[in-house]
Structures are given as C-alpha cells and as structure tokens.
Design a protein that fits this description.
Layout lengths: L1 H12 L4 H7 L6 H14 L12 H8 L3 H13 L3 E4 L3 E4 L20 H7 L22 H13 L15 H12 L10 E4 L1 H13 L5 E6 L3 H9 L3 E8 L2 E2 L1 H11 L3 E4 L13 H14 L2 E5 L13 H5 L4 E6 L11 E4 L2 H15 L4 H12 L3 H25 L3 E2 L8 E5 L4 H10 L5 E2 L12 E5 L6 H12 L4
Parallel strand pairs: 4-5, 4-7, 7-8, 8-9
Antiparallel strand pairs: 1-2, 3-10, 5-6, 9-10, 11-12, 12-14, 13-14
C-alpha cells in the first residue's frame, strides 16, 4: 500500500501546480472543475493506475495551494463519476474502470425484427435524419426555450414542495388546466376525473391492469401502435386487430370480433392515427359507440396526437362524455419525450380506482415534470408552438411524399395531418428494414404494426425525418432491385 501511495503522489507531483494551470486557463471553468478534469485525464491516461491511493485531502490542498473544501468536492465528484473509490478511514483510491463484459463481436447474430427490436433501435445513437422509422419529431423542431422557461419558472418558485411525494392523482393545478384544455374539444372532465401519468404508456398499462385478466381479448387498431401489443401480451391478454380503414375501423369486422371474443376493452386512435395519419369520421364514431353500448365494451381513446390536428375533428369522448370512453393524452410529442407527463380522463369512480392502482405501482408521478407542463400551458406560448409544428409538418408533407412516391413507394392512406405516412414498398418491408439497419438507417416495417406480426410490404415514415440523401439513395437502390 505504501508503494501505491508513493506512485500516486509522485505522478501528481510531475505536473505543474494548479495555481500555474489556473493562470493559463481562460475556459471559465471553476477550480473544482479544473481539478476534477486534471485528475480524470491522468486516470484515463493510466498515469494514476487502478488501486493507487491519492494524496490525502490535506496533502493535496497544501501541495497545490487550494482549500480543503475544494479538494473534497473534486474528490467526491470523481467518486460519483466512477473514477475514485472512497474507503472509510483510509482515503480515496483509483477505481478499475475496465468493462465487465466483452464487446459484441462482428460475427454476432443478426437482429430479430420484432417490437422489442424497434423499441431498442429507437434508442440507438443515430441522428434524427437517419431514423425515418422513429415516432418523435427531431429535437430542433421542438421549442427548447419554451421548456427552459417552464423549468426556470418552477425552480424559481422554490424547491420545498418537490421534496415530498406529489399528489397521488397528480398536480392539482395541472389537472385544473387540463379541464380547460379538454373543454376546448368538448370533453367535460372535472379535475377529479383526471389522473396524471408518466405518459400514455403508463396510462394504458394502468388501464389494462384494471380491466384485463390473463387470457382476455383486447381489441386494437390494425395497423396500430406496436408497443401496446407487447404490453398487453406481457399481461397475458390477447391483442386482436380490428382492420383500420381510411375513415376508421372496419365496422363489419369490429362487430364480428365483439360477438366472437366479448372483449372488455377496445383501444382506438380517433385523430391522426398512428401509423396511417387518418382520422375517424363522425359517422364511424357514432357507429363505434353504438357497438360499444350493444356489446358492453369499454373504449380507450388514445389521443396523443391531438395537438397536431388544427381542424375540428370528432372525439369519441366528446360524444360519449366519458361514460363508456376513457380518454388518454400526453405532451411527449409536442414538448419533450423526456418529460413523461400524460393523463387519463374518465368517470369519477374509475379515476379513484386508477389512482389506487397508480399508488400501488409507483406511489406518485414526479411533480417536477407536472409543474413544468402546467407552466408551459398557462404562460400562453404553447398554442403558438403547436401551430408552428402543424404548419411545418404541412409544408413538409407533400414534398416528402412526392419524393418517396417517385422512388416507388405508394401511399396506402392519404395522411390528413400529423407526422406519419403509411406507404407500400411492394416487397417485404422486414427485408428492407434489415438492410437499412446495416447502413445505420432505422426503418419501421409494417409487420410490427399488426398484433399478428405477419409479413407486410408497408412501412411507417416520419415525415419530419424522411428526406436525408442517404435514405433516399438507399431506397432508390433497394426498390430497384429485382428480388422481391
């Protein structure tokens, strides 16, 4: 151990003092940051080797003419970053930071293109322009200033309220603001009928656990949101697809499935459906509600793309006023995906039951994010922000579709708005997606958007991320190939 101490001490003594480094530094970094960076670089270069002990806080402070408090903070930061290990009564030691597992070799098995593959791939380190299969707008389309102002306003109001658990049902002022927002689309929901969630994903999970039992059928759009299929299957339920047409579900198929399976839930996207970009017509909406009443099924209306729709559009929840319809929404698409704030609007007793289920699963949702969203909504800039998004998407839609159609892709449904287009490639889209992935391009093959997972020739394209030259060149070559 004495040798280790000497090695570390000698190594640190070889450098000029921090005072001389400070005189030459114009970066604006604090002294703690300079000490931390200096030590970290020496450990990365293995001049300070794993297992060696650093000088004591007193020794380091005296040698470099800095305060002990500064050294303490620098050492603690390096502990938090995994560079140092603190041993009580002994000091600070350089930690061995070698990876615990070997990297995957070049001969690793090719990926299996399923729902889990697509979800994992969406989190790869790819720029947005190389992810036309992504479900998010590129970051530079969103308003970081809008989010920043909301965060600053919340933090200026004091952190004390954030030190405890939040309200089980969610931050009351945000629920009150959502009452106003829902009223704009003619859904009457008191704050007591609104439960805040960590996005639509948690909302659907809570609802599914409330209504579904192992073996139960649950009807979903086909095509529809792929993550939902895996979620329901993981609970032991059986997701069954209702064919989706340009104006809503195929009513004959819907009634047949309701008769055959008697499902407790039917999950449907009424407005700017993912992946087709179509919306439910008023005539179809009335028929869906009639069938729901006749067969005793509860409808879950996923309206996560509500704010991308600038035209008057019918909602099932507005026609039904939350008697048989559960309405869910979120701000992940328009404000920030990382700010996991969604909500459920439903009848009062169900809201209480879902709040209890939320308590058992996660106690509460983080109030910090809920306060930020509340601030974003009440400051008045959110409406202009979503108008800009709608305008930008509208300007992008026709040129991008024209480019893709020139390459041989065909629009299955004319998208009425939003960020998605559902296109037919005329060949197995799984094969296209696999080849694209080899070239660091993420496509979303159609098989993943059906609960049956059957091969499909269709692809979902994000219109905000589908004009990169590499993508267009890949599609041109792939679609000209003779193999089908």
């Amino acid at each position: 151990m004495t040798l280790d101490v000497a090695v570390a001490t000698d190594s640190l003594s070889e450098e000029p003092s921090l005072n001389s480094l400070a005189r030459a530094d114009n970066s604006g970094m604090t002294l703690v940051e300079r000490i931390t960076g200096w030590l970290r670089s020496r450990m990365d270069q293995r001049l300070l080797r794993p297992g060696s002990r650093l000088p004591s806080i007193r020794q380091f402070a005296e040698r470099h003419g800095v305060s002990r408090f500064t050294v303490v903070e620098a050492y603690e930061r390096l502990v938090a970053q995994g560079y140092l290990e603190s041993r009580r009564g002994s000091g600070f030691y350089v930690r061995d930071r070698r990876p615990l597992t070997a990297p995957v070799g070049a001969d690793a098995a090719p990926p299996v293109l399923d729902v889990v593959w697509l979800v994992r791939a969406m989190f790869q380190d790819l720029p947005p322009e190389r992810m036309p299969g992504s479900g998010l707008l590129p970051p530079d389309w969103l308003d970081s200033d809008l989010l920043g102002r909301g965060v600053r306003a919340v933090t200026r109001s004091g952190a004390a309220p954030l030190l405890n658990y939040g309200q089980p049902q969610g931050y009351p002022p945000l629920r009150a603001q959502l009452q106003v927002k829902l009223a704009e689309i003619e859904i009457a929901a008191a704050p007591e009928q609104i439960v805040l969630t960590a996005g639509v994903t948690q909302a659907l999970d809570m609802i599914a656990r409330q209504f579904l039992r192992p073996g139960a059928a649950v009807l979903v759009d086909d095509p529809g949101w792929f993550l939902m299929f895996g979620m329901f299957a993981a609970l032991g339920a059986r997701p069954i697809g209702v064919p989706r047409l340009a104006d809503g579900p195929d009513l004959a198929s819907l009634e047949q499935l309701l008769q055959e399976h008697r499902p407790p839930l039917y999950v449907i996207t009424s407005v700017l459906h993912n992946p087709t970009g179509s919306s439910l017509t008023a005539a179809k909406a009335f028929q869906v509600l009639r069938l729901a009443e006749q067969y005793g099924v509860t409808i879950v209306e996923d309206d996560i793309y509500a704010d991308f729709c600038g035209m008057p559009t019918v909602r099932l929840a507005a026609l039904d006023q939350l008697r048989r319809v559960i309405y869910v929404g979120s701000f992940s698409k328009t404000v920030a995906a990382n700010l996991r704030v969604g909500f459920i609007a439903c009848e009062r007793e169900l809201a209480r039951e879902l709040t209890d289920r939320k308590l058992l699963a996660a106690l509460t949702t983080p109030e910090l994010g809920e306060r930020v969203i509340h601030q974003v909504l009440v400051e008045g800039h959110y409406r202009k922000h979503v108008e800009r998004l709608r305008t930008r998407l509208a300007a992008r839609r026709e040129p991008v579709l024209a480019q893709l159609e020139q390459l041989g892709l065909r629009a299955v449904v004319d998208p009425q708005g939003g960020m998605f287009a559902w296109l037919d490639a005329g060949r197995d889209s799984n094969v296209l997606a696999a080849h694209a992935y080899e070239q660091r391009l993420l496509l979303a093959p159609g098989s993943l958007f059906s609960p049956s997972q059957q091969p499909s020739s269709r692809l979902r394209f994000n219109l905000a991320s589908s004009s990169h030259p590499d993508l267009l060149q890949f599609l041109e070559c792939a679609l000209k190939a003779t193999t089908r």
